[in-house]
Every structure is written in C-alpha cells, then in structure tokens.
Amino acid sequence: MNLSFYIVDVFTEKKYAGNQLAVFLGADALSDEQMQKIAREINFAESTFITKLEPKISVAEIRIFTPEHEMKFAGHPIIGTSWVLMNRIFENQPEKITLSVPIGEIPIHQSGDLVWLQAAQPQFLDTFSAEGFLSFSNLSSADFDDEFPIQEVSTGSAFVIVPLKNKKALENLILDKDKMNEWLHTHCKTNHRALYFYCLEDAKLISRMLCIENNQLIEDAATGSASTCLQAFLLKYYSPEIKIVNHQGDFINRASQIYFDGKLTENHFVIKIGGETQFIAKGEWEV
C-alpha cells in the first residue's frame, strides 16, 4: 500500500523556516498504530492524515499526530493541510473549506497568500504564581510581566500562557526538564501539557513554546494551537480587539510569522490565526 504525501513549511514567508509538516492522503485504511508509527518515523512536530475527502463540497477529515501521541486540535497542521488541499488537491482551488478534526469542524479560508482558521471558544483554567517557575527555570521574579496572570488556556489543546517583560528574558530562557515535567504534571488540568512564554515589547509580539515529548525538552517553531490560546488571553486581558503578528521560532533558526485577528464582544471570542505555507516536496510512502 502506497500513500501520496506532501511536505510543507507552515507559518513562514520563505522555505526552510516556520514549522515542518507532512500531509498524507488516503489514510482511511491506516490503523491508529500505523499513523503513529509513520509520524514517529518522519519525526516532525506533527504529521496529518487525511481520512475522508469530499472535493465537491470542499470538506476533509483529518487526524493529527505528533511523534508521541494524537492531537485533538493543532494550528500549524490545520493551516498546512488546508493549504495543500486548496492549492494542490481540490481542482477548483476553493477559497473556503471545512476541516473536521477530533474537536469538531474548523472553518478555513484563504485570502491572498494567507490561510486562516477560526478557533473554538476558549476555556480559561487555573492561574499560577510565578514562584513555581523559579524552581525549574533561570527566570527571576523581575522577569515576569505582572500586569498579566500566568494561566492555562485551551481552545482544544491547553497551554500555560506565561507573560515575560522583555525579549532578553525570553531569549535567555533555560528550563530544567525533569523539574518542569514534575510541575506540569502537578498543575495542568489536561493531558496536553506545555508552556507558552511570550513578551510584548515595543508593540512586537514574540513567543516560545516548550514541552516535553519522548522524555526530551522540545521547542516548537510555530504553534498555531498555542497562538489561538494566546490570542484569547490577550483579548481577555490586553485589548478586546487585536491585529498583530506573533513571531515564534526566532531562537531556534526557524523564524515564523503567525497572524492574529481577534475580537471579544460580550464574552464571545472570535479568534482567527493565519499564515503562509511554502511547498517543499511531494512523494510516495510505502506502508
């Protein structure tokens, strides 16, 4: 059995930056175990598997796997897969499609070079003291932006949003893997445990996403799901309308640009993120 697959770079204006993604077509015959093994073999942050395709109505069903587990929702795989569908698979090249993922249907649209998704309504979970972070990082109390809380937020996948005062603190960040893992398991409400550090300095938004996978400390180049959580957080605590570019991956040489366009009205969140996708390769995968 052979599967066609595409490799793209997501949330980037140029090749060999942003977040890598493998997109596998015709995956409906694969077992969960096979999808997981393929994702582990290719070893990108995530790989997607298209399990149902309805070109006439521009609808597709996908599953998303990291090298370690399946994700219910993840931004860069949804954006990248949508770009492949709209620009390489669907013959009519529609500007709007719907992707079905485990948390539900995600509306997608393409405007110029940007593909946009609209996230689900956020959940604001526990808040935390900065003191806990001092035990597993090189941060000092003065590095945290105390105008904002530290809080776990979810739009399908949960992230602990950690506001820092400046780019220097973000750039010099060092974490102790084992102590961080212990903190995450003690404090996080969901099975998806990750930290999303950010700073707003001179009106520029910069971020870093770190998590533990396969017993390794991993930094992601561009995290769409975390960005939807961060956008919800900023709408709640910073401004009820926001249009800004989130810069991630700068400190691991995979510069990424994630566009925010959000609005909060009477406790209803409109959370949209967008980004460019670059085509890298197409091939056949023998299962």
TrEMBL record:
The record's listing under Gene3D superfamilies reads: Diaminopimelate Epimerase, Chain A, domain 1
Q: Where is the signal peptide?
A: none
Q: Where is the active site?
A: 46
Question: Pfam families of this UniProt entry?
Answer: PhzC-PhzF (PF02567)
Q: Which domain of life is it from?
A: Bacteria
One GO molecular-function entry:
isomerase activity
| Family the entry assigns | Belongs to the PhzF family.
Species this protein is from: Flavobacterium rhamnosiphilum
Name of protein: PhzF family phenazine biosynthesis protein
Supply the SUPFAM superfamilies for this chain.
Answer: Diaminopimelate epimerase-like (SSF54506)
The cross-references to InterPro entries, in alphabetical order and at most eight, read: Phenazine_PhzF-like
Q: Which Gene Ontology terms of cellular component type are present?
A: cytoplasm
